[in-house]
């Protein structure tokens, strides 16, 4: 038994030495030995080959094939406004046939509405050799089945232990490093060391995800004293951005390992953590954020105004609170490539441990990050209008669908005010088209 134990210890020491020498040290220094590039080259070629094999193996169009992300959906919608739609049926008062419009819209929403589908994983054009996105493609040919089996072995027996080792090193270094830096007195030295620790550990964690990130327009990177706002797909969004620069984080207080990391990092950097359920904390956070942006020597604040994770296809309503603070807004668009791995966190379906396991057993995390020109609030523009303008810019840059709905609908019901708004629109249309002149006059006076 002693021989077995010593052999395991030697293997572990060699494994750790190779990981440190070939991955950790180069990533900490911001250099690459070409290993990630070679891996991505092999992966791209393999997925291209698998796509060709699938296309050859399917003799006729297969109804199980996943639809493209740009598809309009499984039903054909008529986007004609309610007023024009009902106006086709009659020109006067209410008629019983009016209910057909509402029935059709109701059926469309039941079959496929434009909101809840944003809270499920993005669908792929072709199978990426992951079981979680499989619709029996790997049974088309023996070669494809063999490649799939090899892929399972590589992902679970090699990539998963490697990524777990890197994640453990990165998280431990983050906790220990920020705790030590936090003991220093406030000043330029502490700020510099804090940035070095955050940047170094983020680079290691990105390697733990086999991350390949393309940053565009770096001349527009957020500056100190500003507010960086970005669309939100995953908890790793923050790691993706801090891999290229340091930010002061704003978010909810967590327990467990995440709580340990939060308590350690806040000692070295002025992050803002708060309880979402406490209204008083929100006022306190707003005050602290204003004080933060007034100091042009502090790191830019990183905020995800959607407040929840959306599935990499859309941008939903931005909460106005981030845009009431003042200061310069630096929009950032993040778009993941789902072909290599699904970065979206469906928190309603998976806990954080299950999600991280899915991420670490994916092929890689590939994404594009666009830094956009800074934006300021225009004269006469309220916070909601400003938030919508920033959201539209991010959606256009990232090729995402812009939706007006609140991401809180993931867990909450539609507010009664939305229903009442449609009822008011319909009643106003009836009054305007009705035959009672007094009602029409009264509506105009309103």
Q: Major sheet: order of its strands? A: 1-8-7-2-5-3-4
Write the H/E string, N to C: HHHHHHEEHEHEHEEEHEHEHH
- What is the oligomeric state here? single chain
- Put simply, the count of helices is 13
* Uncertain segments: 62-72, 434-446
> What's the gyration radius in Å?
26 Å
Describe this structure in words.
The chain has helices at about 1-30, 35-55, 80-85, 100-110, 140-180, 190-210, 235-240, 255-270, 280-295, 350-360, 385-400, 415-435, 435-445, and strands at about 210-215, 225-230, 250, 270-275, 300-305, 315, 330-335, 365-370, 400. The protein is an alpha/beta fold and about 450 residues long. The strands form two sheets. It has a seven-stranded mixed beta sheet. It has a two-stranded parallel sheet with strand order 6-9. Helix 8 (about 255-270) links the parallel strand 3 and strand 4. Helix 1 packs across helix 5 (about 140-180), helix 1 crosses helix 6 (about 190-210) and helix 5 (about 140-180) crosses helix 8 (about 255-270). The longest helix has about 40 residues, at about 140-180. The protein is globular, with a radius of gyration of 26 Å. It starts with a helix and ends with a helix. Residues about 60-70 and about 435-445 have low confidence and may be disordered.
């Amino acid at each position: 038994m002693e021989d077995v134990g010593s052999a395991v210890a030697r293997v572990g020491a060699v494994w750790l030495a190779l990981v440190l020498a070939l991955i950790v040290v180069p990533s900490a220094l911001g250099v690459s030995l070409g290993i990630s590039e070679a891996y991505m080259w092999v992966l791209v070629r393999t997925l291209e080959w698998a796509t060709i094999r699938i296309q050859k193996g399917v003799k006729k169009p297969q109804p199980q094939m996943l639809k493209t992300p740009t598809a309009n959906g499984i039903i054909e919608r008529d986007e004609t406004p309610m007023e024009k739609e009902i106006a086709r049926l009659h020109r006067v008062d209410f008629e019983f046939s009016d209910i057909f419009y509402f029935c059709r819209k109701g059926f469309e929403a039941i079959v496929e509405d434009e909101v809840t589908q944003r809270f499920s994983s993005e669908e792929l054009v072709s199978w990426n050799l992951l079981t979680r996105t499989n619709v029996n493609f790997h049974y088309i040919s023996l070669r494809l089945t063999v490649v799939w089996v090899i892929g399972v072995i590589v992902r679970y027996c090699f990539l998963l232990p490697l990524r777990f080792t890197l994640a453990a090193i990165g998280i431990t270094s983050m906790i220990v490093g920020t705790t030590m830096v936090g003991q220093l007195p406030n000043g330029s030295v502490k700020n510099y060391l804090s940035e070095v620790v955050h940047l170094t550990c983020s680079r290691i964690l990105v390697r733990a995800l086999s991350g390949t990130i393309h940053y565009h327009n770096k001349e527009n990177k957020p500056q100190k004293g500003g507010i960086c706002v970005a669309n939100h797909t995953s908890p790793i969004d923050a790691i993706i951005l801090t891999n290229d620069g340091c930010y002061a984080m704003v978010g909810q207080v967590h327990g467990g390992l995440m709580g340990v990391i939060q308590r350690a990092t806040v000692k070295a950097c002025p992050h803002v953590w708060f309880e979402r359920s406490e209204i008083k904390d929100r006022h306190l956070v707003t005050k602290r954020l204003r004080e933060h942006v007034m100091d042009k020597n502090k790191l830019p604040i990183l905020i995800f105004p959607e407040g929840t994770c959306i599935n990499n296809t859309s941008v939903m309503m931005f909460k106005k609170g981030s845009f009431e603070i003042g200061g310069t807004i630096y929009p950032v668009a993040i778009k993941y490539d789902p072909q290599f791995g699904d970065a979206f966190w469906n928190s309603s379906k998976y806990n954080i441990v299950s999600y991280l396991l899915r991420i670490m057993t994916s092929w890689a995390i590939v994404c594009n990050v666009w830094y956009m020109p800074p934006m300021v609030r225009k004269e006469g523009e309220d916070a909601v209008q400003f938030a919508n303008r920033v959201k539209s810019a991010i959606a256009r840059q990232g090729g995402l669908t812009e939706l007006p709905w609140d991401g809180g609908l993931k867990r909450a019901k539609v507010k009664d005010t939305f229903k009442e708004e449609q009822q008011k629109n319909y009643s106003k249309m009836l009054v305007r088209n009705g035959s009672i002149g007094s009602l029409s006059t009264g509506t105009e006076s309103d």
